[in-house]
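lol forgot to send this yesterday, sorry. struct tokens for the thing we talked abt
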């Protein structure tokens, strides 16, 4: 039986390149593709893959949050993070969300098939540069707070959508909640972070990996 895979990346050319490479492997089958985190969660629920290749920086719902949701709904699935970023915040938050691997995009084509097979044996796969980041974080204690320890899951979703320029009404419609609830979340976010302008909140969301400049 082939290993069943879902690819989640908001860049079509990256998905196509990964798919072409993976389909050359006799024991790997790509079930579907997602261009944002919310679609990745839905496809994982509907298609029951064994592995999800998850871009960390995606619109609507970022890869870190999507990983948490995928693993909450489909506990047996393995997630491999894929990113251009080797920043420790991205790496550590992805691993804390439950990812079984983390690769940089410039090494993905050479390493991805190996990583897929390894995580299915319940091992962690990290590209060399990422392993160094994890070791340094461990040695330094990794004690600083991140957005994932300060804000609730819903507050993080609202903050990402705010950073992507959506209005309170658009956020309310998107998340199926009331505008009043969105405004309550907005106030709680500002209070918890002690950041009181949308511009500064946007910078914070990008720095913490909730959103990107793409």
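and heres what i got for the seq, position by position
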């Amino acid at each position: 039986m082939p290993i069943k895979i879902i690819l989640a990346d908001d860049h079509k050319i990256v998905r196509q390149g990964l798919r072409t490479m993976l389909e050359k492997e006799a024991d790997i089958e790509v079930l579907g593709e997602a261009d944002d985190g919310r679609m990745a969660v839905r496809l994982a629920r509907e298609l029951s893959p064994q592995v999800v290749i998850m871009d960390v920086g995606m619109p609507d719902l970022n890869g870190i949050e999507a990983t948490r949701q995928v693993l909450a709904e489909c506990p047996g699935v393995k997630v491999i993070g894929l990113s251009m970023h080797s920043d420790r915040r991205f790496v550590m938050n992805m691993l804390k969300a439950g990812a079984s691997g983390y690769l940089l995009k410039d090494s993905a084509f050479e390493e991805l098939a190996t990583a897929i097979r390894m995580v299915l044996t319940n091992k962690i796969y990290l590209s060399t540069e990422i392993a160094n980041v994890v070791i340094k974080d461990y040695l330094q204690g990794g004690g600083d707070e991140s957005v994932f320890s300060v804000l609730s899951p819903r507050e993080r979703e609202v903050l990402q959508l705010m950073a992507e320029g959506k209005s309170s009404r658009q956020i309310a419609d998107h998340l199926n909640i009331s505008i009043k609830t969105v405004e309550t979340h907005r106030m709680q976010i500002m209070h918890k972070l002690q950041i009181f302008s949308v511009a500064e909140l946007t910078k914070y969301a990008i720095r913490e990996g909730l959103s990107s400049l793409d």
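The mean pLDDT is 90. anyway ping me if u want another try
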